[in-house]
Amino acid sequence: MPLYRRYSLPLLILMLLFLFILMAAHPQSSLNAGLRGLAIWWDVLFPSLFPFFVISELLLGFGIVHFIGALLDPLMQPLFRVPGCGGFVAAVSCASGYPIGAKLTAKLWEQKWITRIEGERLVAFTTSSDPIFLIGAVSVGFFHQPEIAAVLGAAHYGGVLIIGLLMRFHGSRSGNAVTHGKRPQSATTPAGHTGQPTPTSLTVAPNAKSDTSSVQQRGRLRQAIYAMHTARLEDGRPFGELLRQAIASSLRLIIVVGGLVVFFCVILEALTNSGLMSGLRLLTASLLSACGLPPTLTDSIVGGIFEVTLGAQAAGEATGAALPFKVAAAAFVLSWGGLSVHAQVASILNTTNLRYLPFLLARAAHGIISALLALVLWRPLMGQGSSPVFSPIHDITWSPGFSSTVLWQSLLFLTCLLIAMLCLSWLSAGTSRLFARLRRASRQ
Predict the structure, then answer these.
(1) What does the alpha-carbon distance between residue 392 and residue 384 come to, in Å, rounded to a whole number?
(2) How far is CA 35 from the centre of its chain?
(3) 298-306 vs 239-274: helix axis angle to the nearest 10?
(4) Cα 363 to the chain's mean position, in Å?
(5) Contacts of 218 (CB under 8 A, 6+ apart)
(6) Contact status, residue 101 vs residue 89, Cβ threshold 8 Å
(7) pTM of the predicted model as reported, rounded to 2 decimal places
(8) I need a labelling partner for 144 at 20 to 30 A (CA). Which of 22, 134, 218, 302 fits?
(9) pLDDT tens digits, residue range 39-48?
């Protein structure tokens, strides 16, 4: 048994006992923290997310997501080095948010559609926030400025694209030949959603090849329409039943979201009472100041490390920081995902042989890339106007010690880092191919 699995359960029990003692020692503050989390859920998250959850379930039931996934099929292999069925996972995860991408990836691995390396690539860039939460909860609910959704969306999903392009170099090409069994042959996105109200029920029809072979010579748009029609036929629920199940599924999901918000509010309050959070906040504030960023964003970064909603709300309520910096902090939080999402993804990956470390590194890189993209894209997307919200990035008064030189140095550092990662990836792949050729030559 691996060492981390041997000691993970005792450590988890000790952590829970420690948190229980802290909550028992400060019951009033724990109660107030829970009430704050409940207020966030009831006042912002429930009215802004629940209607969109229902609509997304209806769109999934009508096969719209399958239509988009079929259109994305030709792009997955040349761009991201994953099979065409990854287009379905990308479409569903973009519509539903984390951790749907990890669940669908695990399902593809179980059904032998992808290898371990391909699964790690896929789950790394398909774990993203859904546009419903990004627009409804963050832009409207927390920032009260719907116009920033363009910057947030471009930064977040642009980071998704960059992470996907970088993860294509994860693993050697020879490792792709080591499959997780015999991969089924398929031409299009696997059909799914056989009567289930959630997008996690990805199933592959046994006759997928025979059903799709007749449309191989048709145009891509006609194949996508065929996939949407097939998904709707396999779903088979009338509109009334589809609406009822969509509401029931959305209620369960929104309650889970509220429970996570309340839980992590109480946990953060307990850690604050213990004094452990003060050191983390001091370290974060020092790092932000060293980079020329407003230290008032500390609560957003620290809260976002644990839970997405808390970090995004703290970014919207931060004082003494310019709006572009607050949006950049929110972009970092959305891309990192929070430990709550990491815990869900780790539990899903634990049922497969997919490793968690590539996912962790991808989330950290996605957070940094999205934050930088939010700053870079602010002026092109927001434009210039009379309101400070629409001021160009170099005309905004930032925190003391900030200069445009710091921004360009950060961009230069990121560019050099990405180039170095690409060079190392190419060097690793070339070395692997060289050793493979030497082994073949020695055998001959």
Answers:
(1) 6
(2) 27
(3) 120
(4) 8
(5) 226
(6) yes
(7) 0.69
(8) 302
(9) 888 887 788 7
Q: What's the residue count for the chain?
A: 444
What gap in Å lies between CA 434 and CA 442, rounded to an integer?
A: 12
Full 3-state SS string of the chain = CCHHHHHHHHHHHHHHHHHHHHHHHCHHHHHHHHHHHHHHHHHHHHHHHHHHHHHHHHHHHCCHHHHHHHHHHHHHHHHHCCCCCHHHHHHHHHHHCCCHHHHHHHHHHHCCCCCHHHHHHHHHHCCCCCHHHHHHHHHHHHCCCHHHHHHHHHHHHHHHHHHHHHHCCCCCHHHHCCCCCCCCCCCCCCCCCCCCCCCCCCCCCCCHHHHHHCCCCCCHHHHHHHHHHHHHHHHCCCHHHHHHHHHHHHHHHHHHHHHHHHHHHHHHHHHHHHCHHHHHHHHHHHHHHHCCCCHHHHHHHHHHHHCHHHHHHHHHHCCCCCHHHHHHHHHHHHHHCHHHHHHHHHHHHCCCCCCHHHHHHHHHHHHHHHHHHHHHCHHHHHCCCCCHHHCCHHHCCCCCCCCHHHHHHHHHHHHHHHHHHHHHHHHHHHHHHHHHHHHHHHHC
Does pLDDT of 433 surpass 80? no
Residue scoring higher pLDDT (253 or 285): 285
Interval 115-138: pLDDT, tens: 999 999 999 998 888 888 888 889
Phi, psi (degrees; rounded to nearest 5) at 185: -90, 130
Q: Which residue has the tokens 């973009």?
A: 94
Residue 70 structure tokens:
């079929």
